[in-house]
């Protein structure tokens, strides 16, 4: 038998995303993603993000609709050491029959000179679902060659004017509003209802606020795939430590419009509120204070809009 390698699959990490301070890679279609700092000065930021992610992962629940990418290891180029997620901060999840064993050093071969951490990869939405999204919801100015979306952001709040009139859209992170999501549910009965999605958002937000102690600034809620053919709902969070309720409210309204509007008239807000308060645990009074403050802030904003 010939020893020639007939595979066209690359032997190098492939870039699947990039931001201002880091780039995300995947390797040979594997189940992990690797976030690598873009510059040496970003090492502390990457390390802090890794520590926050594993703390949040420890507070997540198998009953939660949204899942966090599990963090596996952090690489510090300054000391050439790997910090493994050794289980002390992991949640008490019961391993499934297909549960992956611990990986000794998942970052080997990814980087030697940049800080990085390994985590579960969020896969693209199944092709069939993505094709329907492209057919029904892509703007008229999108070219026929535009690919189906990779991931979908679930914008269940009130879209600002800049989003409603934008002449730009992203197939990498396509934004779905509640009406579009409901339409998609009509095509795919396997999807969770919009109310259950809103409830899941509330559940995860409360866990970030009251169990992990972060303000959920720049949190992301989205829809992807499991790498085979099923839909998954994912969450990513980049936060600051909590100081007071007003900080939570400020972060809540500064985020992209993922959350239902804090109005009793919003059909999805009761589900969001239910999920939030149910997940507060022993901090339910703080949770009620946040909900009340969010309702008041929304009322003040609505009043200002009516006067202008």
From TrEMBL:
<protein>
    <recommendedName>
        <fullName>DUF3669 domain-containing protein</fullName>
    </recommendedName>
</protein>
């Amino acid at each position: 038998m010939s020893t020639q390698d007939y595979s066209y699959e690359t032997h190098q990490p492939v870039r699947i995303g990039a931001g201002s301070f880091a780039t995300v890679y995947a390797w040979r279609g594997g189940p992990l993603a690797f976030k690598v700092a873009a510059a040496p000065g970003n090492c502390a930021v990457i390390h802090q993000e890794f520590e926050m992610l594993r703390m949040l992962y420890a507070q997540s629940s198998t009953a939660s609709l949204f899942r966090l990418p599990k963090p596996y290891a952090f690489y510090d180029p300054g000391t050439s050491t790997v910090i493994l997620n050794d289980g002390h901060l992991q949640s008490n999840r019961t391993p499934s029959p297909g549960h992956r064993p611990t990986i000794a050093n998942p970052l080997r071969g990814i980087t030697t000179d940049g800080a990085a951490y390994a985590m579960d990869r969020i896969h693209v939405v199944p092709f069939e679902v993505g094709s329907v999204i492209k057919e029904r919801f892509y703007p008229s100015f999108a070219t026929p060659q535009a690919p189906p979306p990779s991931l979908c952001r679930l914008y269940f709040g009130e879209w600002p004017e800049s989003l409603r009139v934008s002449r730009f859209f992203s197939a990498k992170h396509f934004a779905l509003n509640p009406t579009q999501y409901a339409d998609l549910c009509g095509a795919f009965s396997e999807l969770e209802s919009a109310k259950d999605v809103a409830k899941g958002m509330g559940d995860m937000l409360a866990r970030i606020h009251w169990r992990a102690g972060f303000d959920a600034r720049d949190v992301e809620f989205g829809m992807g795939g499991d790498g085979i053919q099923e839909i998954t709902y994912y969450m990513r969070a980049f936060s600051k430590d909590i100081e007071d309720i007003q900080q939570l409210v400020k972060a809540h309204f500064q985020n992209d419009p993922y959350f239902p509007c804090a109005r009793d008239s919003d059909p999805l807000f009761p589900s969001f509120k239910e999920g939030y308060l149910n997940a507060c645990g022993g901090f339910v009074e703080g949770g009620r204070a946040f909900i009340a403050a969010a309702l008041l802030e929304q009322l003040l904003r609505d009043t200002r809009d009516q006067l202008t």
